[in-house]
Every structure is written in structure tokens, then in C-alpha cells.
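Hi Y.,

Following your request, here is the sequence exactly as I used it, all 179 residues.
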Amino acid sequence: MSFVPKPHEIYRHFKGNLYQIVTIAEHSETGEQLVIYQALYGDFKTYARPLAMFVSPVDKEKYPDVTQEYRFELQGEQRERSAVTEGAGEKEMAKEPQQTERTETADLDPMLVQFLDADTYEERLNILAGVHHRITDDMITTMAVACDVEVAEGELEERYAALKTCLITLEKYECNRLR
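Below is the corresponding structure, written out as C-alpha cells. Let me know if you'd prefer a different format.
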């Protein structure tokens, strides 16, 4: 695979957890490129991994049941945008965008859709952390309604923190039973 992760992109590790790219660094002695990335769960640890290892395929002999092709795969709207950008030639880029009928679901953030489809509160917490940098009041309201909790009006960061606290509580006491 020939891609270089970019800051703020969100990747799913083949074992399921989400990570956000912080930057690409250079090892001071070897010159090797390292991906610096942060977990979007638990205590949000920051990790460094050689770029070649980050973009490598999953070892199918060691992990035969894994369906993901690469160790880390770009998630949501970022993957779609990246595929369009990489796959489009200059000719395609110069064309006028075609008028298409938009539906309400087309306006939803793909990560919000993932949140709504999540099977566990842990997944919802990971997704919530992943959209923190771009969350809106409407997203918080939608997420709160989906979890059957009430988040009071107020500052965006306060509402985010309140929703996160509710999800943590639900995860702890509801044993991940969503439905």
C-alpha cells in the first residue's frame, strides 16, 4: 500500500480500535519515517510506529480470521475523499460537478452514522472521541437522542463532556446492552 497518513485522519486498527494521526516524524538517527498516533479510547495513549509497519498488510497466517486487509485502514468520509482524490485524473477534476438529488442522510457525517450503528457503548465512545475536533451541537443532540439521554444546552465543550460522561456511565452499568 502506498499512502502516507495525514494529521487528524482516523484509522481503524485490524483489531478494532480507532486511532488519530498526530504527525509523521523522522527518527533522529536513522532517518526512518515514524507515524505518531493517538488512541481514541481508554487513556488516549500516544504511540509511534515505523511508517512501513503502519501501512503494512495484516499477517493472515498469524491472524487468519481478520477481514481487514491492512494493519490500519482510513475510516469514514476521509477514506471516501481520499479515494476520490487519488483516483481522479486532472480531466475528472476539471469537470463540472453533476447535479444530484440530495437526501437528508447524504448530509450526515459518516462518523455520526457509524455512531448510530455502533453495537456497544465502547464503540460509541471511540467514535465520539474521533469526531471531537469537528463535533457540532446538532451531532451531540443526535447522539444523545440515539442513546436516550438528555444533554443540556450550553457551551459545545460542556455538552461534549456531558455526553461522554453519560456514555461512560452507560458502558459501566448497562453492560453494553444497546437494544
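The chain is about 35% helix and 15% strand.

Thanks again,
Q.
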